[in-house]
Amino acid sequence: MSLIDLANPTRFLALSARVLPWLAAATIILLGIGLYQSALAPDDYQQGATVKIMFIHVPNAWLSMFVWGVMSVASLGTLVWRHPLADVAAKAAAPIGASFTFLALLTGSLWGRPMWGTYWEWDARLTSVLILFLMYLGLMALWRAVEDPSRAARAAAVLTLVGALNLPIIKFSVDWWNTLHQPASVMRMGGSTLDKAFLIPLLVMAVAFTLLFVTLHLAAMRNEILRRRVRSLQMMQASRVAFSSEVGTGSRQESASKGAA
Amino acid sequence: MTALSALIRRDIRIALRVGGGALIGVLFFLTVVVLMPFAVGPDLALLSRLGPAILWLGALLASLLTLDRLFMADHEDGSLDLITMSRTPLELACAAKALAHWLAAGLPLIVATPVLGLLLNLDMVATGAVALTLLAGTPALTFTGMIGAALAVTLHRGGLLMAVLVLPLSIPVLIFGVAASQAAITGPLSFGAPFSILCALSLVSLVIGPFAAAASLKHGLD
Amino acid sequence: MNGLVPVKMELAGRGITCVRGGREVFSGLDFEAASGEAVAVVGRNGSGKTSLLRLIAGLLVPAGGTIVLDGGDADMTLPEQCHYLGHRDALKPALSVAENLSFWAEFLGGERCDATDSLATVGLDHATDLPASFLSAGQRRRLSLARLLTVRRPIWLLDEPTTALDAAGQDMFGTLMRDHLARGGMIIAAIHGPLGIDARELRIGGAA
């Protein structure tokens, strides 16, 4: 199985149909294990039971960045290698990435309520994730704004790569801005001293969420391919209708179709 | 070289003539800044504290709005086709166009800053600091915004969509621009650190902008 | 002005496929053109005449096939040796006639002729300092033709070049094209009506 075989959308559809059930099953099993372990994990001596939001929050935050990385690779595929599946992959990933980012924001804000006494704090991490969320939404707006997918694909690819270059700069700026305005740190997470009892469920959840992304992404790519096929079939139909009305006013074709009706 | 200077001279000339957008940008800048006291109240102490931020936001919006048609006009009249076909690399042509735009629309903003500083109760030092940070930072705004202008050609539409795409990318410039001005006015940080980072951002965008814009234009030809 | 040494050039396209907006415009198209020769591209609306010119000009990327130029300047790409005269005039209404022309002369570079001479040739010498926005459609076309004369390029890609030109203008343009061919130039023109000079016909998209 080489990359060339995968380049063929039909081949991709067949292969992904075979892989998807297994992936979905693995995702469900791992998610189950992860949730069970998270529930069993001890309460934090400072934060109490609220620390359990971490097991959802951290994987979402991790995926919010990972998905942009996936889209960047796909964008290179569009611009450099002109791989036929690359822009399908990029387009399908954007809404999923946006959802993970949104969940990271939501869980972060819910976590912040007992920690900070407020749902939103202009904390450096949350602010960076919020900007990332805005960029995801912008990218989705761009995909929606253009009728022709191949045009949108190239524009989105340029924007994704520019975003990938800019995200570290934005992260750095926001950190700097945050230390400037909030000298006292609001929250220090466990950091390196994260206990094993937390670490293992967290890793399981991270893997489970990554699998969840792969599953959703494959399914979304299949949908996108099928959607484009429908579109090109419609275009073929439209051009056939236009052609027959252009050529055959009262010609054989029309009388034949009338006869058939 | 003659090709690039010809392009710069042409773009500046068009921007300054009837129908050009250079002076509208300054007017927009002025209007936004004048609008601010109506939102936050005419308290001079508050205005002078918010002054750098207001001026920076105004400059950011003004430079973005005038950038919208940077490539669109050339695309519509067919000039962009000839520029793409020419012996000048498209990246250099893009950089030249952005430079021309900055000279025609960015510099006037900086010239207008002292006048607006008076309205916002900024003293000489503060006004000078804001003008200096704008001088160092607006090239970054132009060269990042240029990417949006090139995407507008690919997508056949500009306006709000472009603003939504480009504004998040200009957050670092805004942060360090305002921080450097504030540092010069109130401290306690040194002016040097954020200002050097601001210059670095401009230099980085000078490299990334033309390449991204040219890539977008090349792939968006139709 | 006569520094152009006639070099034998041959432009050949093999099996070109053009896809635009997910729709195949034409496929497997072969063509050739040689220096001193004019090719008239004909076909019904939407058959891809403009697309073919833009493919040669490098403004579109072919979905398949190759376009090769033999015997041109080896240091330059094919688009860099072409003049493209499209539907749009590439003129800035805010600039004067002379400014428009001198900008393209400086920007495009390469071997040049005097801009005033070319303006006189196309019959616009009386309007040199007028803004281009004052010109009529025919006059704008004449100004575009002056660009082809001022900057030398061996290959002219013309998209319906005679639209908006009056009878005298078409005669003048015919002479210009014959001169260009006589100097060893090459012309590929997409047309609906007569081109005004002898040209080999290249029909695309089947019979009209």
Quick rundown:
Helix content of chain B is 82%, strand content 0%. Chain B is mostly helical and 222 residues long.
How is this structure best described in words?
The complex is a heterotrimer of chains A (261), B (222) and C (208). Chain A is mainly alpha-helical and 261 residues long. Chain A is built from 8 helices and no strands. Chain A is globular and about 75 Å long. The model of chain A is unreliable at 183-192 and 248-261 (pLDDT under 50). Chain B is mainly alpha-helical and 222 residues long. Helix content of chain B is 82%, strand content 0%. Chain B has 10 helices and no strands. Chain B is elongated and about 55 Å long. The model of chain B has no long low-confidence stretch (mean pLDDT 88). With 208 residues, chain C is an alpha/beta fold. Chain C has a single domain (9-193), classed as 3-Layer(aba) Sandwich (Rossmann fold). Chain C contains 5 helices and 8 strands; from the N terminus they run E-E-E-H-E-E-H-H-H-E-H-E-E. Chain C has helices at 49-56, 97-108, 115-121, 137-150, 167-182, and strands spanning 10-20, 23-34, 38-42, 64-70, 82-85, 155-159, 186-190, 200-203. In chain C, the strands form 2 sheets. In chain C, strands 5-6-7-3-8 form a 5-stranded parallel beta sheet, with helices on both faces. A 3-stranded antiparallel beta sheet of chain C has the order 2-1-4, covered by helices on one side. In chain C, helix 2 runs parallel beside helix 4 (137-150) and helix 3 (115-121) packs across helix 4. The longest helix of chain C has 16 residues, at 167-182. The mean pLDDT of chain C is 85. Chains in contact: A-B, A-C, B-C.
Largest sheet of chain C: 5 strands, parallel
Shape call of chain C: globular
Mean pLDDT of chain A: 80
Q: Helix and strand succession of chain A?
A: HHHHHHHH
User: Helix tally of chain C?
Assistant: 5
How many DSSP helices of chain A?
Answer: 8
Distance between the termini of chain A: 48 Å
Second CATH tier, the architecture of chain C:
3-Layer(aba) Sandwich
So what's the overall shape of chain A? globular
List the defining traits of the structure above.
heterotrimer, B: 222 residues, mainly alpha, 10 helices, 82% helix, C: 208 residues, alpha/beta, Rossmann fold, 3-stranded antiparallel β-sheet, 5 helices, 25% strand, globular
Topology readout:
The complex is a heterotrimer of chains A (261), B (222) and C (208).
Chain A: H1 3-7, H2 9-40, H3 54-81, H4 86-116, H5 124-145, H6 149-181, H7 196-247, H8 252-260
Helix pairs in contact in A: 2-7, 3-4, 3-6, 3-7, 4-5, 4-6, 4-7, 5-6
Chain B: H1 2-16, H2 22-40, H3 44-67, H4 72-76, H5 79-85, H6 90-119, H7 124-155, H8 160-166, H9 171-186, H10 192-219
Helix pairs in contact in B: 1-6, 2-3, 2-6, 3-6, 3-7, 3-9, 6-7, 6-10, 7-8, 7-9, 7-10, 9-10
Chain C: E1 10-20, E2 23-34, E3 38-42, H1 49-56, E4 64-70, E5 82-85, H2 97-108, H3 115-121, H4 137-150, E6 155-159, H5 167-182, E7 186-190, E8 200-203
Helix pairs in contact in C: 2-4, 3-4
